[in-house]
Specification:
Layout lengths: L6 E6 L10 H20 L3 E8 L4 H10 L3 H19 L5 E4 L3 H16 L4 E10 L4 E2 L5 E4 L8 E2 L16 E5 L7 E10 L5 H10 L6 H13 L4 E2 L1 E3 L14 E3 L1 H16 L5 H4 L4 E6 L5 H15 L14 E3 L2 E2 L10 H7 L4 H10 L7 E3 L1 H31 L11 H9 L3 H10 L3 H22 L1 H4 L4 H21 L5 H10 L34 H21 L12 H5 L3 E11 L7 E6 L4 E6 L7 H4 L3 E5 L5 E3 L2 E3 L2 E2 L1 E3 L5 E3 L14
Parallel strand pairs: 1-2, 1-13, 2-3, 14-16
Antiparallel strand pairs: 4-5, 4-9, 6-7, 6-8, 9-10, 11-12, 14-15, 17-18, 17-20, 18-19, 20-23, 21-22, 24-25
């Protein structure tokens, strides 16, 4: 029998404060966590949602060094951007704090010290790279060198981003310090390790036997890790940014970010509830649920539970409903390549449309496999579902009530079999939505809510009250009463998913309260209740708006291609005598025409200063004839003539190929006399 809990503690993965939040984060973690929390609040349950920024670690120190600012400056900037974005988007945290706070430093330090005093950790000395110029040990990301696998000369000490291979810093060929550029040396350093192998039997029993109900992707990844065998994991590192290791002889060492970050859930709860936080973390009647992405499964299902078990007084997570990844337009979201839809930019460019993105990300959530976000799908779901189904039904019901009954809920008269069947169709919506939400199947729950809107739309279309208004107003009153009751149900059903629209709908329906237990009820709105003004819940999104977003991504892709462009290697050396054989002159294009039945070729008439001659050039995909007439160009005039499409070409126009494949003319910076030699 499933245990009944008195309260629920919801945590969300701490976004890393070296950049803003994007739609992948939202779909994977924050939208589902918010749906779940809002649902429990709507039911009147005791629930809190804890969030915050993860602000320690090497990438933040790298960004700070690159920008010439402090790590605190970096995290302050992005913490504020992230926090504001979440607030505007309606992610309803009870607290959103940060791991650079004083209370977090104390909590993480105390947690480490308790495990240290209990003798949990093991101490190990190992050799790590040390920068003798910078006088510090180097984290893996501070070391670059040549990848031993693909020979990429810009590989990092933990991974080669060219071939994707995981590395140890000592694997690199010709390693260099990213701080000073000097060659680092190996030097001994001492660190503390959490012996995960000692908790393997406990974790195997707790997860594989005790939590078979976990999502297959979560359960499967845990089993894979456990089957490989767990190894001790370092909980400290040599760095000057983070929570200092609170023991003697640990100068210049901080808690490893993977160890300190999940303790942020505890410290943030302490900050929110300084007097009662323990009942959410140490009472067996509390249900702890971690919302994370799949890249964090091992930390939240194996490492953090081992930490909590070692400490001894904390509860363990009841569920960890991790999602898969969301891709963007068929490509993996990448912060380094700027291939993302950033939340703060979306909020600026689509004002008032928070719920549109919430709807699309839920309807297309990567709950069981990686999914893809496309702007065309975003537009289609808005226009064909939110506008045409949900918004259309509500608007028709409201407008007709104002037209025929002065905006007051009309009396419900005798019902037909069709009326009763319609009401019967949605009486089970509450139980069905509860089943889906409580098993973390938010896509299915959203479908149930939208099906309710479909029932309403069909009901109005079938009964056609506007046609009955001339002959049977009692019948019209009954139809609109039923329609308004459906609309009231929609305000409740969509509250966890579309909070802004649900709030607007409740205002239109004069519903001050929103009670989950009323979902499925057919008498929510009292007869004679004065409704508010009818307003559109959603509006169509035009093609131009979507095309602008697609172009923005195309521009990003082109910029990445230019940034990552690597020229072809130099060709084999030639003698100076060979070079002098080439006669390159400056000429001017006098005439230009496309060569018929070809896409690339253009016929040019060029004044070389020596003569006027015909040259056939493959530039037609890059220029129009009108664009090239009058240009001075570089032309190889002593190239042996050859026929192209029946036209004798007497020379070659010199072009440079840009990183994006575009051909550009090699031409003088100022106009010179035609026939001038290029030397």
């Amino acid at each position: 029998m499933e245990k009944k809990f008195k309260r629920t503690l919801v945590t969300t993965a701490l976004p890393y404060a070296n950049g803003p939040v994007h739609i992948g984060h939202l779909a994977g973690v924050y939208v589902p966590a918010d749906i779940y929390t809002r649902y429990l609040r709507l039911k009147g349950e005791d629930v809190i949602m804890i969030g915050g920024s993860d602000e320690h670690g090497v990438p933040i120190t790298l960004k700070a060094k690159a920008e010439g600012i402090t790590p605190q400056d970096v995290v302050d900037r992005y913490h504020n951007i992230i926090k504001k974005s979440f607030e505007e988007f309606g992610i309803s945290f009870d607290i959103y704090s940060r791991t650079s706070s004083a209370i977090h430093h104390r909590t993480a330090s105390d947690f480490f010290r308790k495990l240290y005093d209990k003798g949990v950790f093991i101490e190990k000395t190992s050799e790590q790279y040390y920068d003798e110029e910078a006088h510090q040990f180097l984290a893996d990301r501070y070391i670059t060198g040549t990848c031993p696998h693909c020979k990429n000369e810009r590989a990092y000490g933990d991974q080669c981003e060219a071939c994707g291979t995981s590395l140890n810093a000592t694997d690199l060929i010709n390693p260099k310090s990213a701080i000073s550029g000097s060659t680092p040396v190996l030097r001994e350093t001492k660190h503390w390790y959490l012996p995960l192998d000692k908790y393997e039997a406990f974790l195997r029993q707790w997860i594989l036997e005790g939590h078979k109900e976990w999502k297959p992707n979560v359960y499967g990844q845990c089993k894979s890790w456990l089957d490989m065998g767990l190894q001790p994991r370092a909980v400290s590192r040599d760095l000057d940014w983070g929570v200092p290791v609170p023991v003697e002889g640990a100068d210049g060492k901080v808690l490893y970010v993977w160890f300190d970050a999940p303790i942020g859930y505890i410290s943030n709860t302490k900050e929110l509830l300084p007097d009662t936080w323990e009942k959410y973390w140490k009472d067996e009647d509390t249900k702890l649920v971690h919302f994370i992405g799949k890249d964090n499964i091992v930390f939240h299902c194996i490492v953090f539970p081992a930490m909590l078990k070692a400490e001894g007084s904390y509860i363990l997570p009841e569920n960890v409903p991790a999602n898969e990844f969301l891709n963007l337009e068929g490509d993996k979201i990448s912060t380094s390549r700027n291939w993302a839809v950033w939340l703060h930019e979306y909020l600026e460019e689509f004002p008032g449309k928070q719920d549109v993105l919430r709807y699309v990300l839920t309807a297309n959530a990567p709950e069981t496999k990686d999914n893809d976000f496309t702007w065309k799908d975003f537009q289609a779901r808005n226009n064909n579902e939110l506008v045409a189904i949900l918004g259309n039904f509500v608007n028709r019901a409201m407008v007709l009530t104002h037209k025929y009954f002065e905006g007051k809920v009309p009396a419900c008269g005798e019902m037909t079999e069709y009326d009763l069947k319609t009401l019967e169709d949605f009486k089970n919506v509450k139980a069905e939505m509860e089943s889906f939400i409580e098993s973390y199947r938010f896509r299915e729950a959203l479908k149930e809510a939208m099906n309710l809107a479909r029932i309403g739309n069909k009901y109005l279309a079938d009964t056609e009250p506007w046609k009955l208004a001339k002959t049977d107003m009692r019948r019209v009153a009954t139809i609109l009463n039923v329609s308004l009751q459906i609309a009231a149900n929609l305000a409740i059903a969509f509250e966890p998913f579309l909070p802004f629209s649900a709030c607007k709908l409740r205002g239109m329906l004069s519903m001050p309260q929103c009670d989950w237990n009323s979902l499925g009820c057919t008498t929510i709105l009292a007869e004679g209740l004065q409704l508010g003004k009818a307003e559109l819940l959603f509006e169509k999104i035009e093609d131009a708006t979507i095309e602008a977003q697609i172009q923005k991504l195309l521009d990003t892709k082109k910029a990445n291609e230019l940034k990552n462009y690597t020229p072809n290697p130099a060709k084999t050396n030639i003698s100076f005598e060979d070079f002098t054989k080439m006669d390159i002159r400056i000429g001017k294009i006098l005439e230009a025409d496309r060569v018929p039945k070809t896409s690339k070729l253009m016929k040019l008439k060029v004044d070389t200063g020596i003569d006027q001659r015909i040259v056939v050039s493959g530039i037609a995909e890059h220029y129009t004839p009108e664009e090239v007439i009058g240009r001075q160009v570089s032309i190889l005039v002593n190239l042996e003539p050859r026929k192209l499409k029946g036209i004798e070409s007497q020379g070659m126009i010199l072009m440079a190929e840009n990183a994006d494949g575009k051909l550009v003319f090699v031409q003088p910076s100022i106009e010179v006399k035609n026939g001038a030699e290029v030397r």
